[in-house]
Amino acid sequence: MKMEKIILTGDRPTGRLHVGHYVGSLRRRVELQNELDIKKMYVMIADTQALTDNAKNPSKIRDNVLEVALDYLACGLDPKKINFFVQSMIPELCELTMYYMNLVTVARLQRNPTVKSEIQMRDFAATIPSGFLNYPVSQAADITAFKANIIPVGEDQLPMIEQCQEIVAKFNNIYGEVLVNPRAVLPEKSVCNRLPGIDGKAKMSKSLGNCIYLSDEPEELKTKVMSMFTDPKHLRVSDPGEVEGNPVFTYLRAFATDEHFLEFCPDYKNLAEMEEHYTRGGLGDVKVKRFLLAVLESTLKPIRERRKELAKNLDYVYDVLKTGSLQAEEAASKTLAEVRAAMKINYFDGSDFLDEQKVRFSAK
Ligand code: TRP
């Protein structure tokens, strides 16, 4: 039997989305929404998860709900094909989380490598909010509530999917086959998994101030690209340069197509030729950066313009989220009913519980 695809992904609304999100996931989602064998596709604004390490800063999360929605729609994600929703508007997710927590040990949560590195980055030490440590469990609720089987994510999310699979296996083993086992789908090009910041640091992140946002104006984009970190040993144009670990080339690997070369830099047929010249020496950083700028501008211009148009019509964006959240809740409540029935905590559904207890009491 051919499996029907149900896709679910999401992002935390802690800031506007950047080009790392674009190559890591958004671009893929736009393709996926047009595939024919998809039964349903959900995209979630994960505000509940964002609150796990922003409890004291709720307005940051609130303010970014519509920002992220705008980024989605501007990229071409289509509300006719995608069910968008806001995580906290689906209370069923909290209830599922509560039941799944009993299937996961604290030690297992502490071993999750992504959570571990986030704890380090945030300097939590002994002050880890328990909700934060637990967010992989809540993420398992996000996924299983919709019976999603395909989860398009970046590499950093693999530990979450793995934990979800463990929860599914455990739940189904104890209570019966109710939950669907999900599979992660990674970006095709591995450079897209973790785009470095413009400063060359391992990750593009808001707190490091090294992002290129989808909504950046042309002038900001230019300033950022032209100031990007490159190979520090490539001092003169004639010097041989290093492309590995050079963020300008990493970005080109993620964004540049042969058509871009034809249009903006016909000296080279493709990136391999340009990289070869840079490695040999004789190709200056400014020329490479100008090319990257042209590539990024041609990609981001239509997104930026659509975003501006959409921002004039927030009623529409709000409505997409509101309608989508109501629909999503309907789907999640069906799964929750099955979960409760499987766990036999559906006491007031019909007369099973009372009948069974009457038999038990009369046998005493
Ligand atoms: N953890 C994801 C991120 O930080 C967001 C997320 C929450 C998510 N729930 C999810 C992604 C479920 C995929 C599936 O980007």
Automatic annotation (TrEMBL):
Domain of life: Bacteria
GO-annotated biological processes: tryptophanyl-tRNA aminoacylation
InterPro entries xref list: aa-tRNA-synth_I_CS, aa-tRNA-synth_Ic, Rossmann-like_a/b/a_fold, Trp-tRNA-ligase, Trp-tRNA_synthetase
EC number: 6.1.1.2
Broad EC category: ligase
GO MF, one annotated term: tryptophan-tRNA ligase activity
Catalytic activity: tRNA(Trp) + L-tryptophan + ATP = L-tryptophyl-tRNA(Trp) + AMP + diphosphate + H(+)
SUPFAM superfamilies the record matches: Nucleotidylyl transferase
Keyword set, alphabetical order: Aminoacyl-tRNA synthetase, ATP-binding, Ligase, Nucleotide-binding, Protein biosynthesis
Family: Belongs to the class-I aminoacyl-tRNA synthetase family.
Official protein name in the record: Tryptophan--tRNA ligase
Organism from which the protein derives: Amygdalobacter nucleatus
